[in-house]
Automatic annotation (TrEMBL):
Record carries keyword Transcription: yes
Superkingdom as given in the UniProt entry: Bacteria
Single Gene Ontology MF annotation: sequence-specific DNA binding
Annotated Gene3D superfamilies: Homeodomain-like
Tagged with keyword Hydrolase: no
Coiled coil stretches, renumbered: none
Key words of the record: DNA-binding, Transcription, Transcription regulation
Name of this chain's protein: AraC family transcriptional regulator
InterPro entries, per the entry: AraC_XylS_family_regulators, Homeodomain-like_sf, HTH_AraC, HTH_AraC-typ_CS, Tscrpt_reg_AraC-type_HTH
């Protein structure tokens, strides 16, 4: 009886549940809005078209989620702390290769009455920064796992209303002038991290990265390590080695060509770094994969 009712009333939550093979870890409704956390170990999967657009927050799990773009996986990657907008009526492909841990906020089409809200949910937007939306989402999650009290119920309702208002207001990031260049911001950090992931072969010197963040080199290094757990240099190296794994598995480029393409000083430097990262040489890893 319950299954018939679910089938008769399609919703984003029902569609995602059927796709992942399990119900959300936690969920709560704000009227017709649905707030749900999904946790599942999964490789790659195709999500059917949703009935309502959805605001997605990457809260944990694998720090390397990719989107299928026409005929290849995206170069950009979603990491914990990124947001994504998936429009209604569009099927999407995802690669996790590990633990999926996201929150979805389903936005009823009927409530998109303002043109600005219609515009922001009309197209796919993958792995962008929205510090306020992400902070509200994390706060709501924390309360959903807390002991139930009347005050907690009221507080969750207030947070959900705030997230709803923020989502309808619009999440399109402003230009750099809207963010003080003298201070650190989550927006700038995510922007820098995504730039490294998109173009790991570039030099990405500490001085250049710090300048983009509007910080001194020493301050930027401290802030970056606090946010990611590793230094900027280690993050750049990790991005290069991950790209090297992609190239070794999906191309016929020689080891020397890959080393040169990704900005390593020599093939031997690349081989040492790759062995330390992957536990085997580039040629050995290529043979294993192929």
């Amino acid at each position: 009886m319950r299954e018939r009712e679910v089938s008769a009333v399609p919703s984003n939550e029902n569609i995602i549940t059927r796709t992942l093979g399990r119900a959300p870890d936690r969920s709560v409704n704000i009227g017709a809005w649905q707030f749900a956390r999904w946790r599942q170990f999964i490789g790659s999967y195709e999500l059917p078209a949703l009935v309502d657009p959805v605001f997605v927050v990457h809260v944990g799990g694998k720090p390397d989620t990719r989107l299928w773009e026409a005929d290849h996986w995206s170069q950009s990657r979603s990491i914990p702390g990124c947001a994504t907008i998936v429009p209604a009526g569009v099927s999407t492909g995802w690669r996790i290769d590990g633990e999926l841990d996201v929150v979805t906020v389903s936005v009823p089409v009927a409530e998109l009455t303002q043109q600005s809200a219609v515009d922001q949910f009309r197209a796919m937007r993958f792995a962008f920064a929205d510090p306020l939306g992400i902070a509200l989402t994390r706060q709501i999650l924390g309360e959903l796992y807390a002991a139930p009290t009347q005050e907690r119920v009221s507080y969750i309702g207030t947070l959900l209303d705030a997230l709803k208002a923020h989502t309808l207001r619009g999440t399109t990031p402003s230009g750099d002038h809207a963010f003080p260049s003298a201070d650190f911001s989550a927006y700038r950090m995510h922007q820098i991290m995504n730039e490294i992931l998109a173009r790991p072969e570039e030099p990405h010197t500490l001085e250049a990265l710090a300048a983009r963040a509007g910080l001194t080199s020493s301050h930027f290094c401290r802030v970056f390590k606090k946010a990611t757990g590793i230094t900027p240099h280690q993050y750049v190296m990790k991005a290069r080695l991950e790209r090297a794994q992609d190239l070794l598995g999906a191309s016929d480029l020689s080891i020397a060509a890959i080393a040169d393409q990704l900005g390593f000083t020599s093939q031997s430097h690349f081989t040492r770094a790759f062995r330390q990262y992957a536990g085997q040489t580039p040629s050995g890893w290529r043979q294993t994969i192929q």
